[in-house]
Amino acid sequence: MSKNVIIIGAAGRDFHNFNTYYRDNNLFNVVAFTAAQIPDIDGRKYPAELAGELYPDGIPIYAEEKLPELIKQHNVDICTFAYSDVPYDRVMRMSALVNAAGANFGLLGPKDTMVKSSKPVIAVVATRTGCGKSQTSRKVIEYLM
After folding, report:
1. Helix (H, G, I), strand (E, B), or coil: what is residue 138?
2. CA–CA distance, 100 with 83 (Å, rounded to integer)
3. Which of 19, 22, 46, 125 has the fewest CB atoms found within 10 Å of its own CB?
4. Average predicted confidence (pLDDT) for the chain
5. Which domains does the chain possess?
6. φ and ψ at 104, to 5 degrees?
7. How many CB atoms lie within 10 A of CB 81?
8. pLDDT tens digits for 46-103?
9. 138 vs 40: CA distance, rounded Å
C-alpha cells in the first residue's frame, strides 16, 4: 500500500526530489506540492509530461499556508521538506506544524537524490535564494566555452 506524500518546496529542490526519488516509486503517492516563495504558483500543476506514468494528470501545486488542511484532506502520511536555503528554526516550525496536523515530517538526503555523473561536475551553490547562482553559472559556462 502506497503512502500519501506532500512535498514542501519552492519549485526547485522539491521538483528535483520528486524526479529522483518519488516519480517512478509506487511505494508513494505524491498528492501535492506546496510552495511559498514563488508568486502565483499555487493553482498550477507539475506537468504530467514530467511527472511520469504514475501521475497522468500531473500533480497540483498549492500555497504552503494550506498545508494543514491538505494533510487532512488527502490523508497524508509524510511531508517531505525540500527547501535548500532556510534557517533551522523554519525547518523545525514546519516539522511541528506537519506533526500537529497528523503526518510524519522528513528530509531526503543526497543518497536518494544525487544524480550520478560520468563527467566532472562543477557545483554553484549559495546559502540563500538571490545570491547570484545564475549569474555565476553563466560566467563559469562562458569561461569553459
Report:
1. helix
2. 20
3. 125
4. 93
5. 3-113 (3.40.50.720)
6. -80, 155
7. 22
8. 999 999 999 999 999 999 999 999 999 999 999 999 987 788 999 999 999 999 999 9
9. 27
Give the pLDDT confidence score for residue 74 in this predicted structure.
Answer: 98
Query: Are 24 and 30 in contact, with CB atoms under 8 Å apart?
Result: no
Which residue is listed with cell 499555487?
Answer: 42
Phi, psi of 90 (to 5 degrees): -70, -40
What's the per-residue H, E or C state across 26-52?
CCEEEEEEEECCCCCCCCCEECHHHHC
Task: Answer for the pair 17, 7: CB distance below 8 angstroms, yes or no.
Answer: yes
The CA-based dihedral angle spanning residues 63, 68, 69, 71, taken in that order and rounded to the nearest 10 degrees: 100
Structure-block grid coordinates of residue 20 = 529522483
